[in-house]
Amino acid sequence: MQGRFTKSIQAEIINSLESFNSGPTQWAGVNFLDLDLYYFSYTGISETLAKDLAKRLKLTPKALKTYSLPYPLWLFLSFIPSLKIKTFFERPSFKRGIFIFPKWTFNCPPATTFLTEVSFEKLLLIITYGGFKEKSYGKYYQKLGFKNSKEVTVLYVRRKDFLQNKEKILENLVSEIFKIFKDP
Ligand SMILES: Cc1cc2nc3c(=O)[nH]c(=O)nc-3n(C[C@H](O)[C@H](O)[C@H](O)COP(=O)(O)O)c2cc1C
User: Fold this and answer.
1) CATH number of 24-181
2) What is the secondary structure of the chain as a DSSP string?
3) What global pTM score does this model have?
4) With a 6 A CB cut-off, is 81 part of the ligand 1 pocket?
């Protein structure tokens, strides 16, 4: 009985050490635990990406919540630049943040609300998109981010690429995130 108990403790310790050593939070001795990871998602792509990234970075993702509206209404609202909508989210705990959200025509109202209500020293925006006009949209949100945050970087993930090459996309994002946040 005692032998089995000791073995299970040994296995537990080995498991913890393995995940500790292989986890990206150990790269170059940099600590990534002081990061807030937020997402807004309507059809699930940004949510999956946020949860997969959170797992790799050992973070707890925080979801933005808003009204549950049908697609035609969201589509209509996405044509109104700068429109905000009541959005609920946990306040940031840290000075550095990642925010993952979708590209919606000209405007994603919950994302616009969020970016006008938070401020970070360093902010990374990750925009998931279907396939067009993502750069001008990213520039718009980078500018909006700069109103409250000191440093704002934007990365883009095409939905099809994420669905077809998830591991590769995640690997690239993790390495970009390490470059962006390696300095305190
Ligand atoms: C209202 C609405 C508008 C959209 N507009 C665009 C667009 O202009 N360009 C584009 O590439 N994708 C557009 N998309 C597709 C989304 O950006 C893409 O599917 C994204 O990955 C969805 O993220 P989500 O699943 O987290 O909601 C739109 C989607 C919705 C719902």
Assistant:
1) 3.40.50.360
2) -HHHHHHHHHHHHHHHHHHHHHSGGGGGG----S-EEEE--SSSHHHHHHHHHHHHHT--EEE-B-----HHHHHHHTTSTT-----B-PPP-SSEEEEEEE--TT--HHHHHHHHH---SEEEEEEEESSSSHHHHHHHHHHHHHHH-SEEEEEEEEHHHHHHSHHHHHHHHHHHHHHHHS--
3) 0.87
4) no
